[in-house]
Structure formats: structure tokens, C-alpha cells
Design goal:
7 strands; two-stranded antiparallel sheet; five-stranded antiparallel β-sheet; alpha+beta; DUF2116 family Zn-ribbon domain-containing protein; 36% helix; elongated
Length: 116
């Protein structure tokens, strides 16, 4: 059965459900189609990774206190976190994977590490 490659439009023979003439064309097509989504995901993951590293550096003993100024000086972005944990008392912790922070009074934060 004669078909046309979705990437290069070359004719090729093969199974009825085959869409590309080669692995190279298949990879090029999928990379082009997914480029925008991959950039967004890559940027978000980089931001989360940086936030995690900052929390880990400032919290070596799994529980400490720091200021908002110190976090922002290191480049921490409060818009990126992976989960929110609310205690029964209503206290809200923000987590970047296993590293968390709790907003306190006067722009201070309690840093914690979730033990699995």
C-alpha cells in the first residue's frame, strides 16, 4: 500500500497504519508538534527544581525558620509549588516536593521537610 509521510510527504510502502517513512521523520514531526508544551513544562520544572534547592539549602536540619528576604534574595518564586497541606487546625503549608514552608508573622517562614 502506497502512503505519504506526514513529515516530508515522501511516498513509502508499509503497514496500513504507518504514518512516517522513517524514525527520523517521526521524531522530527513529534518534536515540532510538542515544542511549545515541552518548553512550558521544562520552564516550570526548572522553576520547581530551583525552589526545591533553595529550601533544601536553607533547611539542613529538616526544620528551621527564615525570612522572606532571604528566600527572595536566593531567587525563590512563591508562585511555584507542588502541593498544599492544610492541618486539622487550618494551618496551610506549601510544599515543593518534600520541602515545605509555612508563612508566619512579620514575613518569616517556617521551613519543614516531609518525611516519607
Amino acid at each position: 500500500m502506497q502512503q505519504s509521510c506526514l513529515e516530508c510527504n515522501e511516498s513509502f510502502k508499509g503497514r496500513a497504519d504507518k504514518k512516517f517513512c522513517s524514525d527520523g521523520c517521526r521524531n522530527t514531526y513529534n518534536n515540532r508538534i510538542n515544542k511549545d508544551a515541552k518548553n512550558l513544562i521544562r520552564n516550570v520544572n526548572n522553576r520547581l527544581r530551583k525552589n526545591w534547592r533553595i529550601l533544601e539549602e536553607l533547611n539542613p536540619k529538616d526544620k528551621t525558620k527564615t525570612s522572606r528576604v532571604k528566600l527572595t534574595e536566593k531567587g525563590f518564586d512563591f508562585n511555584y509549588f507542588t502541593s498544599i497541606y492544610t492541618t486539622k487546625a487550618g494551618t496551610v503549608y506549601y510544599f515543593v516536593y518534600d520541602q515545605g514552608y509555612l508563612p508566619l508573622e512579620n514575613d518569616y517562614y517556617a521551613l519543614v521537610k516531609r518525611n516519607s
